[in-house]
Amino acid sequence: MGAGSRPPQPAGVAEDWLAEESEDPAGDGAGELRSVQVGADQHAARLDRALAELVPEFSRSYLQQLLAQGLVHLNGQPATKASARVKAGDQLVLEMRPTLQSQAFRPEPMGIDVVYEDAHLLVVNKPAGLVVHPAPGNWSGTLLNGLLARDEKALTVPRAGIVHRLDKDTSGLMVVARDRATMDALVALIAERKVQRQYVALAHGAWAGPPTRTVDAPIGRDPRNRLRMAVVDLAVHAGKPARTDIRWLAGGPEGCWVQCTLHTGRTHQIRVHMASLRHPLVADALYGGRPLGALQRQALHAYRLAFAHPVTGKALEFRAEVPDDMRQALALWGLGYNAP
Q1: CA atoms within 13 A on the CB side of 102
Q2: Which of 186, 236, 288, 328 is surrounded by the most beta carbons within 10 Å?
Q3: Taking the model in full, what pTM does it have?
């Protein structure tokens, strides 16, 4: 597989993924012209729908990207509006170029903190600021790019073996598969909630009530702000069930230091559930948090990961020390660091 190619994508994963991948028809970065004629079946259809029917080997997402880049011509004129209507006999010419997405799956050498590795999987400690998977605005410099450069086997595994993700500014442990069988097994373990993922977080507001509580509240797109997620009423808005166990570790009048255990893996789950309790994470501006000292990213760290090895069955458990920026923020509130 060449450097411009991308690994095959899985039929499904246990986590929510925000970005779709696109095809690279040429494979080597070269353009290819494709000419098609609108038939009677497509008469009066939207341009994007007609393209999807006339060039079915490529996804609608990829074809919409070609439209946006001015790479589709209708009767000799550039066509950029997906909603434009076409007529029987119209001539469409597509310049089939690789998109930013299709070129994103390239090896890029980088330092990766590997805390465990065997023939089937590895566990990495991701620093804050590193994007896990290529997505709009971050088509390179991601953990996936680094994995592709580090291990030739990653080129043959969907998403370079990534089976779950952390937000860009969340630090901590992730497990990565090195072969397809292990990846499928890890996906199944996560879906069956047999992978223990625990986090520590620093949040605003003095803790009140019992030291442990469970938030069992569905999460979906915030209907008032599509850039955010929110706890939603499934009878009114689209969403998915989400459950987080939260345990108080230490606190004061300014805030609290908590341990969070995930039972599901929704986008921004801990951040949303903590905000719903009126305890937004420190420095999590999207959900109402404010910076504390040098801590400018959400105060969330995946400190513990435990599961049975999908091949050997051996019980594995890993812990990652809390990063310095979170330790310094704790000290500003006089909390110190209490290990869960």
Answers
A1: 22
A2: 186
A3: 0.74
